[in-house]
Fold:
Amino acid sequence: MLRRMPPLWLQITGFIALVVVLGLALAFAIVQLRGPRLEVVRPVAIPENEVNPAIWGLAFPREYETWLRTKEGRKTLFAGSIPYDKLEEDPRLRTLWEGYPFAVEYGEDRGHAYSVEDVLKTRRIQVLAQKRGGSAPGTCWTCKSANVPSLMAEMGAANFYATPFEQLRERMQYPVSCANCHDPKTMAPVIKQVALQEALQKLGKDIRELSRHELRTLTCAQCHVEYYFAKEPKDYLVFPWEKGTRFEDIEAYYSEKNFADWIHPSTGVPVVKFQHPEFELYTSNSTHYLAGVACADCHMPFVIEGGIKYTSHQAASPWYRMEQACGTCHRDIPFIQKRVEIIQRTTRGLQDAAENALLEAIEALKAIKDNPNADPKLTEEARTLFRKAHMRWDFVSAENSLGFHNPQEAMRLLAESINYARQAQVKAIQALQRPQARVP
Ligand code: HEC
Ligand code: HEC
Ligand code: HEC
Ligand code: HEC
Structure:
């Protein structure tokens, strides 16, 4: 029996349907083969001085939504984003920072979306204001708000820093966000922090020539660094990098200037309080830095969603997303997670030993402070050694990765700290034993 051909209309429809299906299959295959696309960066009309991240978010919802997630809180082994009192946990810190605002309050940091809220809450600002007989300097805002770059351009940097903290409060509407790191016209990451621009210039770097790769680390160096407030111009923010960015370069810079943040009361020794030298520790020849890994690789990893690849702006501890943050280079995630833990616990152990050594040095130095029976030369040597020990310990303890960013360098500095602290202790004891000490 002859099979009847389907009617012409059905043949045509069937043919069209086949073409459509094959076309879609081909398109799908191309997308799969090509891999995810990087989010297209459109030149959008974000106003020149826009500071509100929600407005930037209208153009870039994925980046904005992940940025909002810097509000999420999680505790990791030693860090994370759940505030806890570090002084309560380690009371030795009160003695080590005696007489300085950090001995009053020192907590765990949180995500970028909290930066304004947290600086307004900290009692350190109140203590600083009291000490200075009124107000903390405007400088304390520099790393805390998206309003800073445009306001500083408007007021001039020196004027901004010298304005009282309270007086600028009204102007600080938004926490660390888009306007701190991007040019709204091109969306390229840029250096907005005046102090970093000036510091790089002194190191002979042209900030217009920075590569995209360098900016994936240097945008973070706008804030995650050591700094101090100069006396002249008043409270001017300076990164102490003139001699370089390694610990010894910074120490040499401070020593040359006879710089001290405060005099440690029990010992009378002028000491330095480090801030959060993540950039300096990381870039001091760490394995990852030398291998070309950037801060953003681990803390703002790429995410793939619906064939689109974009940067997660949830700058946070990589602990809970090591697959994303480390998986581009490392296969065995449980293994490196274990390594992070081992590195941090080892650093913590050495940090404890340094703190104990420093506390015993403090006891010995107390006995020779203003003591006419102490040998002046040995006293001076003991004090110098104590300053060296204190600075090395503080540098590592102020850095927020508990050694992970550069394990060898952190251990080296802590080992030196212990060595100097014990030498300071011995010299201080000897200062009271020398017979010539009693000669008028
Ligand atoms: C190779 C990956 C990697 C690189 C590169 C890296 N970090 Fe980290 N960072 C980590 C890990 C791991 C921790 C420890 C997290 C923890 O303890 O929860 C950490 C901790 C931190 C913390 C403290 C986080 C917290 O929860 O309090 C900050 C801040 C930070 N890093 C900033 C930076 C900056 C700035 C740079 C670049 C100068 C950088 N990191 C480079 C992996 C990295
Ligand atoms: C702390 C600095 C920082 C902040 C704050 C920041 N970004 Fe980014 N952003 C970066 C870096 C670094 C990159 C990666 C640049 C690169 O590799 O070229 C990036 C990339 C981007 C890109 C390019 C596409 C992508 O996802 O890789 C867009 C768009 C973007 N950010 C939008 C925003 C928006 C919107 C905000 C505010 C909600 C914001 N950024 C806040 C540092 C920042
Ligand atoms: C304009 C200043 C500024 C810039 C730029 C900046 N940060 Fe931060 N960052 C902060 C401040 C301030 C905090 C602490 C906020 C708080 O505790 O309220 C912080 C906290 C963090 C934390 C701890 C988050 C947590 O959950 O504990 C990480 C991680 C971090 N930043 C990574 C980065 C990385 C990576 C970059 C560069 C891509 C960067 N930051 C650029 C100011 C900045
Ligand atoms: C862009 C690539 C890259 C990323 C991302 C990366 N690493 Fe690495 N990591 C390396 C390289 C390269 C080495 C050097 C050893 C090697 O070649 O395997 C290394 C070495 C290490 C080591 C051994 C070093 C030591 O001293 O024990 C650990 C641990 C480690 N990485 C952990 C991490 C963690 C945790 C993350 C994510 C938070 C991470 N890495 C992200 C490239 C990367």
Q: What stands out?
A: The pocket of heme C (ligand 3) is lined by residues 81, 109-112, 114-115, 118, 143-144, 176, 180-181, 219-220, 222-224, 295-296, 299-300, 315-316 (CB under 6 Å).
